[in-house]
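Working notes for the structural subgroup meeting. M.R. asked for a predicted model of this chain before we commit to crystallization trials. I am recording the input and output together here so anyone reviewing the notebook later can reproduce the run.

Input as submitted:
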Amino acid sequence: MKPEEAYLAWAPPDSLWSPWAIPVPFAGLDCRGPAGAPEEAGLGGLLPGLRLERDRAVILDLPGDQAVRVALALALRGFRPVPLFDGSPGPTLAPAFGWLVGGPAPAAAGRGVSVDMRELLRWLCIGSLILRGCRIAADAPPVFLLDDRRAGEARAIGPDAFDNRWKTFPQDFPSARFLKEHGIGRALLVATRREQPQEDLAHVLLGWQEEGIRIEAASAGEADAAQPMEIRRPPRFRALWYRALAILRLRRSFSAGFGAWPSGSGG
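Returned structure, recorded in token form:
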């Protein structure tokens, strides 16, 4: 499956939410191999208590591959997954595309990068096959996918490391007004732990909250026990220069998204 075919499986032209699907991780993605049926079989048991409700959007801020698996489980119940991953995987994955659907990546493919995207990419490939067989309404409620490891590990980025850390921004999401115009009045944050969102996501959710979207939160293991959440004000909220300052220490890719060598030359 070619990159554009994989992307269109996740962002079909008729979907209301496709304009927000970020194409960055699909660039160069060559999904080959079997459909991964053994792994697909376990999707139905993920977040069993989370059912389709027309007035509720879902945000999955989980480890990338887990976010994709959960989103696919929700797609089988009628939700529309919207991938918002904005990091480039790194050059070490280039020769390994053949395994993306067929099995785990070689260990070497995850070395030398800030955010290991091997399993995330493999599940995007598996998901592109699953979604092509799903019947999802064009206006189905959205499930926005984030990788909670997007900030990388708490360590300095060396001169030989590919820096593919990234942040999410309010511009990456529909506005609260757009959500309400299309019947969405609530947003459920599903994260590893039920607590305040990461700082970059807090800028999004507080903006929604102030515009009348009710925010709920649940841990990944208890999505059916959602509780209302009051988002605390993050630093530089609504500051005009927030985005520029936030990406100051991140490396932009020449093609799109984030991902480059700290030296700017690949070493």
